[in-house]
Specification:
binds zinc ion; single chain; binds 2-acetamido-2-deoxy-beta-D-glucopyranose; Alkaline Phosphatase, subunit A
Length: about 550
Amino acid sequence: MTLRVVVVLALCACAVRGDRYHGEDVGAKGAAANARQRPAPLEAERTKQFWYDEAQAAIEKRARRSSGQGKAKNIVMFLGDGMSVPTLAAARTLLGQRQGRTGEESELSFESFPSIGLSKTYCVNQQIADSACSATAYLCGAKTNNGVLGLTAAVPRYNCEASLDTSTHLDSIAAWAIADGRDAGVVTTTRITHASPAGLYAKAANRNWERDEQVTSENVDIGQCRDIAHQLVHHYPGNELKVILGGGRREFYPNTTVDGEGRRGRRTDGRNLVEEWISQKRSRNASYSYQWNKSALKDALANPPDYVLGLFQDTHLPYHMEADQTTKPTLAEMTELAIKTLQRNEKGFFLFVESGRIDHAHHDNYAELALDETIQMSEAVKVATDLLSEEDSLIVVTADHAHVMSFNGYTERGGDILGRSSGSADDSVPYMTISYTNGPGARPRPEGERIDVTADNNYGASRWRSHAEVPRSSETHGGDDVGVFARGPHHDMFSGVYEQSQLPHLMAYAGCFGPGKHACSAGPAIHAPILLLVVLTICQILRL
Ligand SMILES: *[C@@H]1O[C@H](CO)[C@@H](O)[C@H](O)[C@H]1NC(C)=O
Ligand SMILES: *[C@@H]1O[C@H](CO)[C@@H](O)[C@H](O)[C@H]1NC(C)=O
Ligand SMILES: *[C@@H]1O[C@H](CO)[C@@H](O)[C@H](O)[C@H]1NC(C)=O
Ligand SMILES: [Zn+2]
């Protein structure tokens, strides 16, 4: 083996630890290299209070200008994992082109929402977010460290012991909603134990502790730090979620069990968490449905049970373009069952829906798959806007972080969004309208020259990688702001540029639940007359 091959293999080995898409070089080594002149974040950022105060001050300010009325009984938050602003522009173009038009003038379902803002996605210890620290921000209302879920930045990643201190624990907006008597649910196309959905119900010093063996293999006491799948079934608020739909069956079954699709479980503690979930619901005398295929999901639509657990794949759901449409539900179909199940609570609900594989496709430089997963998200949002009234239901669509896909060149109007740029490069070698700053699509340059990627054997296939500048086994996230689209009560509170950790506070404000200020109990519109009355009364007393 040449030295070069050894180095490449060593790099791959590092990146594979934990998660194929998110190598653990994130945060650690890079930070050390930069440490010399790097100012540290404020100590206060390690506390929950810092981010709560930051959000409440912003809400106070914005509420004074807001003309919003009413109360969001229902709230649906849609999250496109890695759905950067260029991803939106390219996806809408692809959508239009698939319909036979030029494409650029097309619109994703949520792009017509009345309010749009930008959220700042950095985390406490990292300029560019991973999906765990960002999920903690947009679901629990406080920024934290990269790789950490549901805990403040006082907990270093991997540190189980630090996470036992309850002052570091954060409650998610699902817990706030349930405490208010509403129902809550979660839907994703990734493993249900993956970072974004786990932000709703888990507290974990490491996002990769999805099943028992991933905790114990790091010599962590599993009696103290439970794996994420276990938390979903047995800890609050996971054990109160009415709807749980996604992938990741293997994290729930023992490695001695083979599931309905012939896939083996991965747990080594012998526990069958699906059976435990079932017996728990049975002991509550509730109706329930555990399902693993599309026909069971469709059957449940007619008469949704009290609780539904759907795990449609051993790991992540397949990409929509590659899925067997007869057995795998779409994000839109899962969203429909979720809303129809949760809608029965008269007090309302909170639902989190993630199109999680936009991120994975970008990490592999698979532009078409990333755009198609974005279009799937647009379809799912359409289901929600059709089922829920603008009068009483708030819908928020956003992303956790960006990616480094660029939409570039001087392609003519209507040019194939997945094709080569019609502009010319200085070296006269073709380049794509969509390419990446880094990732596995980086091509070797044997003679120092770029190669013509349009001559690749699989050029045009959905798993053809667009070209990238910097070679990396997995393309990285981007640090740019991401869009926030809002429709429904108090949508105008979501305009502006703000910290991502404000999002759950803003949603709870609109819904009148949770720890902060509520739209329906406060605000100038109500306070002014009361104040006037007090002043008038005092004047009268003084005259007497
Ligand atoms: C299941 O896990 C146990 C404990 O780690 C291990 O000894 C056993 O070989 C595994 N079985 C299979 C079929 O992988
Ligand atoms: C469930 O139903 C059984 C029999 O009807 C009853 O004895 C039990 O108390 C019920 N449990 C709960 C939690 O309601
Ligand atoms: C779908 O799952 C149900 C059990 O929930 C099973 O009875 C049925 O055979 C499955 N259908 C297919 C097509 O695998
Ligand atoms: Zn990612």
